[in-house]
Amino acid sequence: MKAPSEHSTITNTVTATRQITFAQAINEALAEEMRRDPRVFVIGEDVAEAGTPFKVLSGLVDAFGSQRVIDSPISVAGITGIGAGAAMTGMRPVVDIMFGDFITLTMDQLVNQAAKIHYMSGGKLKVPMVLRTTLGATRRSAAQHSQSLHAWLSHIPGLKVVVPSTAYDAKGLLKSAIRDDNPVVFFEDKMMYQLKGPVPVDEYTIPLGVADVKRAGSDITLVATSSMVHIALAAADALQASDVSAEVIDVRTTSPLDKEMIIESAKKTSRAIVIDEGYERYGVTAEIASIIADGAFYYLDAPVKRMGAMDVPVPFSPVLEDQTVPTAEAVAEVAKRLCNKR
Amino acid sequence: MVHPKAKPASKKPVSTPSRDQALHFYRQMLKIRLFEEQVNQLYLGAKMPGLAHLYIGQEAVAVGVCEALRRDDYITSTHRGHGHCLAKGASVDRMFAELLGKAAGYCRGKGGSMHIADQDTGNLGANAIVGGSAGIATGAAMSAKMRGSDQVAACFFGEGALGQGLLYEVMNMASLWKLPVIYVCENNQYNEYTNYRETTAGEVAARAEAFGIHTETIEGQDVHLVHAKSLTLVERARRGEGPAFLHCNTYRFHGHHVGDVDRSYYRSKKEEEEWKSKRDPVKLLAEWLHKSEMADGKLLDQIEAEIAAHIKEAVQFALEAPYPDPNEVNQHVYA
Question: B166 and A128: CB-CB below 8 Å?
Fold first, then answer.
């Protein structure tokens, strides 16, 4: 495995920023990369004039034309395979899969083809493709439009998986994903599209495989992904009242995973909770908890706790659905217990 | 099932092939035949890890199609892919090396029989998922069109792939967007151990025609016919006139894989013998060369001896070649 190279992250220079939404950040990243590299194109269902049902791609077809922002039939496996073939032969496609649940339809093309082609060819062929899709429940969309299936793809050697939590991260990570020579699956939380955050005016990228301390603390580490970063931050706020100082680590990419930063934080705080919106069993939380247990065992004062989505198909009724995702209150409760606070 | 559009083997293509071309086709087909016979020997001698799916009997399809392509045109292949790789220009020594898991193989031993890829000859890879490469071939055609190159992609698959949905998704898009891709359906009559008539409703050609794709059904044992038809379809695609579907009737002389020896439960000896005696593409071409006085028995024997010697040398090379360094196991996971 090779570490990502030629990335520059914004450093100490004072950069002008403005507040834009997560969706605008995605849109900007795509527009910038399409301007920078004529090989980049977007393909998917209703990506052109409609700009996707979430309006994330609005305006791109006007700027780049229908030859580079391509409305496809509802052929989820087909566009993934076409993306792989185009990527192998000199293009850099960004395939839009409207809902993360539909990733199930891409599985052969993504897992058996795109992920393995570089390896199977002895390093000769490359698949520089990005597959953008979504995750996250609580939109009252029921069982087939609400899952967070990023753990499935994080399991597969050859794929990279990105789970950004802010507009700033989304933009910088998507630009890196497009420039990466590997297939990258990019998960966007549907609930986050309208969330605003500071984003530099100037261009920047964020390397894949580097986690981020979203909040520094000393008593407990909350390791979180995507939507759950905001839950962890809210829990950390609440924990202040109980005199618990929580550190929030945003992994940003589940593959490659910044094990070092996670382990170092757990060593420092001696306690950890891993929070992720994927199903809890066999999930991202299990992987990260195991890494902490291995890497920080002698520093831990409490068992590593995991909080994932409830292991049920996501129900429709709000009173049912809301129980299935970890909440800030629940995270704070578990944290207090681990820290022996009431 | 009768193929209404099937042309009899005896029907001559429009123009008579030149002697040079016909002899070249013969060499290419015989190379595949002898290569595959050697693969079987390696299996029987327990010198090859795993299994292989022999292409014997179908040589006219790979050679006829690939000879209509340029070196920079793309192909995608199947689990029964040795013939396609060789016909597109792969060398026998590195093919054998890959089959034996050696570092000198086309994929440094990481791919094996079912995953040989060779970008230098436009081969985007054999594929062990039935129908799995239809997306890749169509994407390569789309890429060629977007880049403004005049490359064409040929997507080889067996009639078993007609059962996979991906094929129909991408044929639809290829037709909508007039992509330069030729879908080459090699109907060797058997989906593994089941006759395709038991698995395939309606007419094969009608499936592609439903997408408005230009479709031809031909006798796949006649290399001149396959080549002439392919030339027309490839040049048509190169001119931007869109995809085509070439349905070639052919036959798998051996089993599904080298270990499939007892086949009586799914097809008769009589049927096999009939194809082998009357519709062997290599024999048919040899007879044609004789009849048209382009080659005599002596020349054909000489060609066979040359190819056999070349194969023998290549096998020796592969047997003696070193395995990859064990440290390579986790190289090439990521680019």
Answer: no
CATH of the domain at A244: 3.40.50.920
Q: Which domain holds residue A87?
A: 19-200
Q: Is residue B328 part of a domain?
A: no
Instruction: Give the span between the Cα atoms of B97 and A115, in whole angstroms.
Output: 24
- Does position B190 have pLDDT exceeding 60, yes or no? yes
Cα-based distances in Å from A84 to A43, A109, A127, B122, B301:
12, 8, 6, 15, 45
Give the distance from CA A139 to its chain's centroid: 18
The two counts, helices (H) then strands (E), for chain B are 11, 7
How many Å separate Cα A312 from the centre of its chain? 22
- Quick check: A233 and A203 in contact, CB under 8 A? no
- Chain B residues touching A160 at Cβ < 8 A: 334
Q: Does A118 touch chain B (CB under 8 A)?
A: yes
Q: Which pLDDT band, with edges at 50, 70 and 90, does B237 fall under?
A: very high
Q: What pLDDT, on the 0 to 100 scale, is given for residue A110?
A: 98
What is the Cα–Cα distance from B308 to B305, expressed in whole angstroms? 5
Show Cβ contacts of residue A215 under 8 Å, excluding neighbours closer than 6 positions.
A233, A236, A246, A247, A248
**Number of separate domains in chain B:** 1
Share of chain B above pLDDT 90, in %: 95
Among candidate residues A200, A233, A257, the one where a domain is terminated? A200
Catalytic residue IDs of A = 145
Cα separation of A85 and B76, whole Å? 10
In this predicted structure, what is the pLDDT of residue B16? 85
pLDDT at B5 over 90: no
Q: pLDDT-based confidence at B12, cuts 50/70/90?
A: very low
pLDDT > 70 fraction of chain B, expressed in percent and rounded: 96
Q: Nearest-CA residue of chain A relative to B115?
A: A120
Q: What CATH number has the domain bearing residue B146?
A: 3.40.50.970
- Taking CA–CA distances from A107, the nearest residue in chain B reads B132
Same-domain pairing of A37 and A179: yes
List chain B residues with CB under 8 Å of A45: none
Cis ω on the peptide bond leading into residue A256 (within 30° of 0)? yes
Average pLDDT along chain B = 95
Lookup result for tokens 């570490």 = A3
pLDDT value of position B15: 72
Chain B partners within 8 Å of A94 (Cβ):
none
pTM confidence score: 0.94
In a domain, A2, yes or no: no
- Interhelix angle for B59-66 vs B19-44, to 10°? 130
Strand locations in B159-221 (E):
181-187, 190-191, 194-195, 214-219
C-alpha distances in angstroms, A145 versus A58, A273, A284? 22, 27, 20
Q: Specify the DSSP class assigned to residue A301.
A: S
Element (H, E) at A135: strand A130-135
DSSP secondary structure code for residue B267 in this structure: S
Do A166 and A72 share a structural domain? yes
Non-local CB neighbours of A80 within 8 Å, separated by 6+ positions: A95, A97, A106, A109, A110, A114, A131, B135
Residues in chain A predicted with pLDDT less than 50, given as ranges, are 1-8
